[in-house]
Design a protein that fits this description.
The chain has 15 helices and 14 strands. With 515 residues, the chain is of the alpha/beta class. The protein has 2 domains: 259 residues, Alpha/Beta hydrolase fold, catalytic domain (Rossmann fold), CATH 3.40.50; 126 residues, no CATH class.
Length: 515
Amino acid sequence: MRRGVTALRLTLIALGAMSVGRAAPAAAGAHAAARFDIVSPCPFPTGSVAAERLTCGYLEVPETRGVEAGPRLRLPVVRIRAAEPGLHDDPVVFLHGGPGAAPLESGRTIERFAGHPFAASRDIILFNQRGSAQTEPPLRCAALTGNAATVIAADVDLAARDARVAEMAGRCLREVANSGRNLSAYGAAAAAADLRDLREALGVGRWNILAVSYGTLVALEAARIDAPGIRSLILDSIVSPQSDLFLSEGPRNFSLGLDRVLDSCAADADCKAAFPDLRGELLRVIEELRRKPRTVVVAGPGGEGEVPLAVNWHDFLGAIHWMLYNAQTLRLVPLLIDRTQHGDLRVLSYVMDRIYPAPRNAAPGPSPAFFAFVCRDQYTAEAPRPMAPADPAFGGFSIVSFMASACAGLVGDPPVRAPPVHSGVPALLLSGQFDPMTPALYAREVAADLPNSTLVVIGDSGHSTLSDFAACQTQLAVAFIDTLQASAPCLATPTRPRFLLDATPEIRSYAAPSR
């Protein structure tokens, strides 16, 4: 038995006793349906951030727009005061990805944003988008929680994995709909309307939107409906309204990222000398794992105990997918391929335990909000898009190859794809060269409709390029938000990854057994 590729668990935070303050006064013109309630002490994990820097509470909005007398939602909100207040009155609001991520579940998130370069002189506003964990009431279903939420099975092929995940997702969507929730009310357009309501309820005249991954689609919708309230857009790892990244374009996007790693290694003298036949080695690893998966032993939940993990060909590609998300871990991909092909499983064991969504991290998989958003925004049953061409060597792999089948069970109004967003708002668009999910072609699609935008492709990065606060692109973003001009001295020197040619001391000392 093995812990399967996809862990489908919706993690809920139990909130302790709290006191609710009066509603913050709404700005003139604010939507009567929206209200911000201050809560003290802060009901969310705040780490080591001083309480005086934080204002916490909930934004109350209608679940279904246009039905003000219907069910209401309460969305968690934290405003982090600038380290040096009073310099700027245009805060930064952060839009998370996923969809369905919940940044306020972790005190580490608030700590990191409190120390963000933006927070030196501007307030930063964080909120969990509708449907995410901690929203009230949350979207939840038995199919994705508890023991039923974790796929534990003997090694199976990709099609069997996808069928099981899709069946669970379909049951989840039907359960949510049967409970009285309106699945049609979950998508980028509704989240953008919440964002506009939040700005007005907080009394903010104009703010700057910092968005990553799926949050960029919400940001673009906000630019469509609330352009006067947006001073600037910083979009990182962009999802365009025209994209089909969770459906027909998933395998293409992954193969673009991996092919670029292989090509970059071949173009780098040191990497090519160390791994002269990297593509051939990868193909042999895939074929060997098709015939016989290899088992590695990783730490159990919380780092306690041991869990045997069978790694087949699509698990191996899944591990590479997650490695391509991060500028540091993508440097390890050639070494992983080479050592695995030569039978040394220490790097593979390390990757499956520390980088892959491993048991030790109790990593949540897709939530009900993930399926609701994606199926609402992208799935079209009547005219599905043909599969985009992908490198056939990777067998059509995508971490979300189950989505078409999952969305086929969607309950609610027929999805409608949004048209492109045309806006003159100053925008900085960032894309990682090796991003396996949102390649730069999406950023180019968006840039074509934003005449006041600058697109920068980060040559040594993958997904979520602004994760490194010291990186050139973060310096660029800090300068942009101050001047609305995209310039930074570090841009003069093109970047490329410095691939690891040998195991680090941490990997060499990694002692988990494998077989």
